[in-house]
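Recap for those who missed Tuesday's class. We walked through two folding examples back to back. For each one, the amino acid string is listed first and its predicted structure tokens come directly after. Nothing is annotated here on purpose, so try labeling regions yourself before you check the end of the notes.
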Amino acid sequence: MINKDRMIKKFMEYVSIDSETHYEKEMMEYLIKELKDLGFNPETDSAGSKCNSNGNNIYFSIPGEGEPVMLSAHMDTVQPGLGIKPIIKGNIITSDGTTILGADDKSGIAIIIEALTMIKENKLRSRPIEVLFTIYEEGGLNGAKNADYSKLTAKNCIVFDTGGSLENVVVSAIAQNKIDVKVHGKAAHAGGKPEDGINALQVASRAISNMKIGRIDEETTANIGVVKGGLATNIVMPEVTLNCEARSLSDEKLEKQTNHMIDCFEEAAKYYGAKVDVDVINSYPSLKTNTDSKFVSEIVETFRSMNIEVCLTSTGGGSDGNIYASHGISPVIVSTGMYKAHTLEEYIDLDIMTSSCEFLLKYLTLK
């Protein structure tokens, strides 16, 4: 059994440390000292200098028997995450309501450290374990993108970075393309000579009216999230920018939807005699872990031994696991018990958090 009180105490310490994205240094330094005090040998990399963060990723490992497994969680939080004051309310922990809680993802860190502390202090036989705590997960997965994969040998990974019940184990996740569009029309006096102009917003409107967005199918979505343009009401709008996205579990469908959106803008520009610039960036690749693998079977059996029947599921968001998958590491994403992440109402369910840690300890240790 894990030391639940110790895990909760550590979690409350972690969320009290400011570590909004780009500013993870204090959290990194705290964890490095703690890990050294626990007898681990943490290392860092230079990821921060590559992605505008003052912190770096943390790596450490435990030797063991058999195939290694990687464990992962991230150190950064979204805003507002400064001066978090965690409050225990029965079986949950919340913030004081003026900030997020930071359970996303410091609950994952607390779970991993408690399980490994149990292994170390009780000298338990275990699998070889490799741990990666990343920076800058929120808003780009940039810690994982800039990690030093030469420090890792494991081909399977458990990412503790999702919420809800333990029954739902994520084994697939969407890929995302960001599609940034700039429509170039032509300025003219809106009252004097409007016919001399080309209204960029009218061009964009034609494109959007012909475009499939929202829920495309069970695997694919698309959205236009930001539109900016215009100088004054008496000027025919000369330029408008649109920030769009497409997501899909299928790489083929993602490409098809992206091309469809581009085609709509190009057709509209041609119709009005305008010009359009399109920039497509793949934010992260899809994640598709083989559900017939020994790794996934062992995950399922471990939960079953705890009387938990899991459902292998997919998610419409990305995580560090997407990046690990692109490096040949097969991830599953397990709940920490967090709810309402990225909001002032965020909370952690302590029963689920405890069970998540007990699952990890049971999975890692050998008879």
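Example two. Treat it independently of the first, because the proteins are unrelated.
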Amino acid sequence: VDVYSRSHRDTNPQEVGSHWSSSGLNGEYEIGDAENVNPGTKIVLQLKDSASEFSKEDVLERILRKYSNFVSTPIYLNGRRINVIEPVWTKNQSEVSDEEHNSFYQYLCGNKYDSPRYTFAYKTDAPINLRVLLYVPNWKPSIFDMARDSDNGVALYSRKVMIMNRTEVLLPKWLRFLRGVVDSEDIPLNLSRELLQDNSLIRRINRLVTVRFLKFLSQQASRETEKFISFLDDYGVYLKEGLVIEGDQELREEIAKLLRWESTALPPGQTTCLDEYANRMHSGQRNIYFLSSPNRQLAESSPYLEAVRKKDPDIEVLFLYEPYDELVLMQLSQYDKKTLTSIESMIADDMANTDSVGSERQNCLKQDEASELVEWAEKVLGSKVKKVKVTQRLSTHPCFVSVREAGAMRHFLRTSLADRPAEERYRVIEPILELNPEHELVRYLYNLVHASKDSEQSGDYSLAISILNHFYDTAMAQAGLLDDVRGLASRTTDLVEKLVGKTK
């Protein structure tokens, strides 16, 4: 490397310049005078044969555009200026037009057909010097985009010089859908990828930008609700991912504030946030209740919703239609000092409900009849259940299973217990089958059991076993705890055949 330099203050053409030279070995260098040096600085690089590509104009242009496209000083390559794009993030944002934002966004994305859905601009000089310009794309991410474990599309700059094009530490992984620039004069130009991983300044920038962006989204939710709902439809899964993987509860709650679900208090298609739910809570209510279900129709016909509404008809329950939504709220655990509770867990934890049967009820099993049915059912089901009991919490459903931490059990069943034997899964889940003694089918089952108690080889006894297994299968399926679909189909067919045979 040879560096020739002469001060611009030297007006005498006879003045000599300075020459600095080094081969890069052992840190040694030489300094001396140099004649015929023009004012300014000239750097001459002697390339190795293996680095000859850096003598090509197109390679140099690509490097200059990548790292120095926004520096204030004009850069010329063979007489042609390279850095002609203006750094939009340094301008007063009130003076930047939508056309300028569109052009800059398309430059960042390399997609001239897309435009930003949201534009977030933020600047501060204390405690960190920071200029931030982030864009939310208009395009809807595909399932492959969501699954892609790549660095985010936000570049790190220092004084308009790019330090790193993409980095996984500048913003959280779950914000990888963003495109834009973060520029800070506090970042040294020689910051390496290794130092970037363990740099307190970068961590502070990460936290500050993340919190500010979440507040920006919260403002958008209030100003343009329909547009924000559309954003959630496309990018909500990223926010939910962030809620699950973030370790800071305060940040989790900031993310949760943005999410929306349907509710028993609202008509189908209309969603609500946790703050709105909290505003509608009854005096003395401490929990936010939710129910996981594939769709609204199944949610409203759920035996669990029926059970809690029988106890409190005015209780509001959020409907979670995506399987991972339940995991999201389980991970959140609390919001604004209110406990997030699945109504299934609420039922399982409700110890006030007993096995007794009201003697004054009409069309209901008597206490001794209920005891006989429960004893028989526990014998038949064996290790499939922790116990069988009668319940007063149902009106239209014949039964359901109650499981402590049902949501966690569903997740555990799909992951850790997926390939385990059925007996082991039952032992971990410990389902309690609760029978409605007022339901016509339960009373019919008791009559079959009682009539055939002295003859286990009779057709009635075999039919009773099939009906009980069907009760159990449907209850486990409604709880999302049944993965033996083929077995369910086979047992249902067997039950229908027995019922048809009985009517002949």
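Answers for example two:
The CA atoms of residues 47 and 55 lie 8 Å apart.
The mean pLDDT is 88.
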